[in-house]
Write a structure and sequence with these properties.
The complex is a heterodimer. Chain A has a domain at about 1-40. Chain A is about 40% helix and about 20% strand. Chain A contains six helices and twelve strands. In chain A, strand 4 (about 145-155) and strand 5 form a beta hairpin. The termini of chain A are far apart. Chain B has four helices and no strands. Chain B has helices spanning about 5-25, 35-45, 50-65, 75-94. The radius of gyration of chain B is 14 Å and the shape is globular. The chains are: A alpha+beta, B mainly alpha. At the A-B interface, helix 1, helix 2 and helix 3 of A face helix 1, helix 3 and helix 4 of B.
Chain lengths: ~375, ~90
């Protein structure tokens, strides 16, 4: 035992001295030589260990970044949810700008604030009032068509009834002027038949002459009779005839052009504008542009999308030419630089200003500098 | 020392070296455990002082290959540590 320990001690001492000498030698070697030895070790013996360390580091950073990635994903998802709402709002505002450019004067744009109280579903609070020239019984419209009518007016706000209100009624006609009637809200939520589910937001066209049969899909617009709503504002499309006990007139169920839940930004026509005969043409061009825009949305491939875009441009250019011609013939444009956009035009003889067609683009986001929808906000009554 | 104990010591050493390059990076943000030192200390009690010094020297060289500026320092430290552990263990055993 003692011999073994002694011989072991001697060998061990030799090994220890050799190892220490080699370690000391390694520390004093030139840098390039040390690097060469270390690189050789890294490429051979240490390579698998380095690979393991690399994978472990990657796993650690993945673990650490997982929480941040989850948070980022949540925020992106939330933003994506809001994006659809923003896109819809953007589209509505663009349409409103387009309508404002077509109207040119005699209107104010407003936000429609919905009341949340019970029984207040049929009214909205508008953010414009008498200071902007709004009066009671002035029409409230949206790019899609008729929304309702201003009921009460305050200096800076007003309350309007929607077409769903029980007091709402408007003189209406088919777009081809072949049938006239009075439009009312359809108050019962029963369906039209056994196959169709009940719908909440519908209208009734009552008092249509028995000889005037309307086909489903016929467009219904305001007739201009009665003096409140100017002629030509879209109201909706005929869904079908309602069976009533009246034998002398027909009643039709109408799908509205404007759904009350979608009402957020509206245009209030000022009283002087409601007597403008060119309003009918304004809506006709708007309807055409809208239908062309719907074709864009329906187009699946890029070629169809491009063709639809071209058709929108051609329709809007034709509408602009038409508006320019009509303005040159009948209604010269008012000078809004001094008096504001709500001022009606002077007679042609008194103000022979040559009409100039308004440039219209497919996207209606950039109105002319002097013809913005909110240009009449500063109008003086 | 039997073959079983030798194999067990080699296995424990290899396992601890593997842990040094896998678990240590994962635990890096908490406590940087030096599994190499643990492996050296645990295996040192199983071998003779000379072999322990040689193993410590090689282990130190492997560790130093990743830090070329201090190449050899780790080898020297490991050699000394292992030899002292075995020598003290031998003294204690005697």
């Amino acid at each position: 035992m003692a011999r073994a320990v002694r011989s072991g001690t001697r060998v061990d001492t030799v090994l220890l001295v050799a190892c220490c000498a080699m370690a000391l030698l390694a520390t004093v070697l030139p840098l390039n030589l040390r690097e060469a030895i270390a690189a050789g070790l890294r490429r051979t013996v240490v390579a698998p260990l380095l690979s393991l360390q690399q994978q472990a580091e990657r796993g650690r950073s993945a673990f650490l970044s997982r929480e941040a990635t989850t948070g980022r994903l949540d925020s992106v998802s939330l933003r994506n949810m809001q994006l659809a709402k923003l896109e819809a709002e953007n589209e509505r505002l663009r349409a409103l700008l387009g309508l404002g450019r077509q109207l040119e004067w005699g209107f104010v744009s407003a936000e429609a604030l919905r009341s949340r109280g019970i029984g207040e579903d049929n009214t909205v609070t508008l953010t414009v009032g008498s200071r902007a020239g709004v009066e009671s019984k002035t029409p409230v419209i949206a790019p899609e068509g008729l929304v309702g009518m201003v009921l009460t007016v305050d200096p800076s706000s007003s309350i309007a009834i929607l077409w769903t209100h029980t007091d709402f009624a408007a003189s209406a006609m088919s777009a081809d002027r072949s049938a006239y009637g009075i439009i009312y809200p359809h108050l019962s939520e029963s369906g039209r038949g056994e196959d169709t589910p009940p719908e909440r937001y519908l209208l009734e066209l009552r008092g249509v002459a028995f000889r005037s049969a309307l086909k489903p899909g016929t467009a219904i617009v305001t007739s201009g009779l009665g003096g409140v709503y100017p002629a030509g504002i879209p109201i909706g499309t005929v869904l079908g005839e309602l069976r009533t006990s009246e034998g002398w007139a027909r009643t039709y169920l109408v799908r509205p052009a404007v759904r009350p839940p979608d009402v957020s930004n509206v245009i209030v026509l000022l009283p002087r504008k409601t007597h403008d005969p060119s309003l009918d043409r304004v809506w006709r061009s708007t309807i055409s542009a809208d239908s062309a825009a719907r074709r864009i949305a329906a187009a699946g491939d890029s070629l169809a999308r491009r063709a639809a875009t071209d058709s929108v441009r051609s329709v809007e250019a034709a509408a602009a030419r038409l508006a320019g011609d009509s303005a040159a013939r009948a209604t010269p444009r008012p000078d809004t630089s001094r008096t504001g956009a709500s001022r009606p035009p002077a007679p042609p003889s008194a103000q022979p200003v040559p009409a100039r067609p308004t440039p219209v683009r497919a996207d209606t986001g950039r109105p002319p500098a002097t013809r913005r929808p909110d240009a009449a906000d500063g109008a003086r009554p | 020392m039997t073959w079983t104990r030798s194999a067990r010591a080699v296995l424990a050493f290899a396992l601890l070296v593997l842990l040094h390059y896998t678990v240590r990076p994962l635990l890096g943000w908490r406590t940087p455990v030096d599994f190499l030192v643990i492996a050296v200390l645990l295996s040192a009690v199983r071998v003779r002082p000379g072999a322990a010094a040689l193993i410590g020297f090689l282990t130190g060289l492997v560790a130093d290959s990743l830090t070329p500026s201090a190449f050899g320092a780790g080898a020297l430290a490991m050699t000394a540590v292992r030899h002292r552990v075995v020598a003290e263990g031998g003294l204690l055993r005697r």
